[in-house]
Amino acid sequence: MEGSPACESNVTVAVRVRPLNRRERDLKTKCVVEMEGNQTVLHPAGSNLGKGDSRNQSKVFAYDYCFWSMDETQSDKFAGQDIVFQCLGENLLNNAFQGYNACIFAYGQTGSGKSYTMMGSAEQPGLIPRLCSSLFERTIREQREGESFTVEVSYMEIYNEKVRDLLDPKG
């Protein structure tokens, strides 16, 4: 659909850059990722390749959303948990209230920030707690007499080709 906003498509793809962790800061690691609107730019990490080598060029990728969560002091481009929820969670919730099933698929290597984006912390709740709160607040606010709702939630992890239900403490 030409010219339609990302929220109207069946799949929305978002990328988030997390802050450097303590180990990365101790090693004086340089950030090689930059966000420009809905584009993610990957810069080469100072290789020994020749100037003409294509691996020495920056790579640009476009997504529906690019969230810069690297440095909170850069408030003009910083995307906190609230921004991520506004862009992703509210549309998902609206679709759920229209009767559509919804799924959030968080993908990335270990330590890339998936759990923080999904669960967050006590001070900065992530997508899942914000979705649950908003879902039940809206259900209570909009419920009409004689109307009932059924909510099913699953929270799964796939790691080393094994599926684990994260809502079942016994595993």
TrEMBL record:
Origin: domain of life: Eukaryota
Occurrences of domain Kinesin motor (ranges): 10-171
Keywords, ordered alphabetically: ATP-binding, Motor protein, Nucleotide-binding
SUPFAM superfamilies: P-loop containing nucleoside triphosphate hydrolases
Residues given in the record as ATP binding sites: G108, Q109, T110, G111, S112, G113, K114, S115
One GO process term, biological-process aspect: microtubule-based movement
Pfam families linked to this entry: Kinesin (PF00225)
InterPro entries, per the entry: Kinesin_motor_dom, Kinesin_motor_dom_sf, P-loop_NTPase
GO MF annotation terms: ATP binding; microtubule binding; microtubule motor activity
PROSITE patterns documented for this protein: KINESIN_MOTOR_2
Family of the protein in this entry: Belongs to the TRAFAC class myosin-kinesin ATPase superfamily. Kinesin family.
Name of the protein in question: Kinesin-like protein KIF13B isoform X1
